[in-house]
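ENTRY TYPE: protein
WANTED: fold as tokens:
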Amino acid sequence: MTTAATTVSGSSSAAPTVLDMAVSKVKWRILPLFVVMFIANYIDRVNIGFVRSHLEQDLGIGAAAFGFGAGIFFLAYALFEVPSNILQQRFGAKAWLTRIMASWGVVATGMAFVQGETSFYVMRFLLGVAEAGFFPGVVYYFTQWLPNRERGKAMAIFLSGSALASVMSGPLSGALLSINGGGFHGWQWMFIIEGLASVALCFVVWFFLDSRPEDAKWLTESERTALTTIIAAEKKERDANKPAHASMFTLLKDSRIALFCFIYFAIQLTIYGATFWLPSIIKKMGHFSEFQVGLFNSIPWIISIAAMYMFAGLAQRYRHQQAWVAVALVIAACGMFASTIAGPVFAFVAICFAGIGFKAASSLFWPIPQGYLDSRIAAAVIALINSLGNLGGFVAPATFGYLEQKTGSIQGGLYALATASVIAAGLVFLTRRRKQS
């Protein structure tokens, strides 16, 4: 990193200040926007967790069908994410990320008109197609706009969007579920209003987002130069440590890529297992209104936001990224295992503890593959890791739904989540063999 910074600054002591100003402007302009986009994205993805009982009552969608429908989103996401990220490189981040958001907003609105299991599956699959490429597209965007030293904090701030969405989605969805009229049920109004909010946000994205630093008129010429120079230097330094003939298919044979996929799979397995089934656990705690269920649902995610920033600060200070990911995964494993010991109240408390781990692990994970990948194929491989890892979002709800319908309990699934987190905590140390750039 020192080498890259020296390349930019040369003999001028003022150049680092120009770079700092450029980085500050970038963060203040794009990070709030991406956080808001992620909040909308996450709400439209997981809001079905709050309408499970309504879908069963009005449409006859049982636990197994609900779990499969919740998870099929991630199959579509996995299939279309790599092509989507490649197309982002062709058309530019501004056009492509705006297109992604418009698409998912329209499909999310269409969820209000499902008629039964088949249409539920189709719309959830289409939502996955529409959203594919958003998350890795933003991750790749950071590699084009921020120096290495800034990306960890940027990822923590960006990922806080999912935690903020989890905090907001409960009370928001609970309030919207109380709306009745116009020929629609409350759950239909929830899908319509939250989906159309994403469509409206597209206009803001188009206005504020630029594809490349060179296009940013809100940066001065010296700031653009400082920013593009250090990013180019870091790419050159990273690519110099990789074979000249490196390609996506070559790196896919690398065992470390497989490790990245499994580790992220284990993280997402736990996140979505908790996300889709937490409202059901809360309802077993007592007789609560939809709004009260939403308020209780916010508690684990409020805790996780604080944990994400705490762990990000520790990792930045002590510089042992893999160790901090492992610690976070062990905390998640302990919380998920403890949730099987007693009743729903104790389970809720245990999941609050687990949230400290699985959300922190998610934000701490991404700087590891970012530092390893050849920038020439980084976008496609980041998309691959995210899409395969996100299959945890299919496995967890589908398995939980099947277990609940067949056995009346999800205890076996919680044991599996704890085991996967422990295994991932051990495997993360195998990614340290090559020096991070």
Observations:
- Confidence is low (pLDDT under 50) at residues 1-15.
- The longest helix spans residues 15-46.
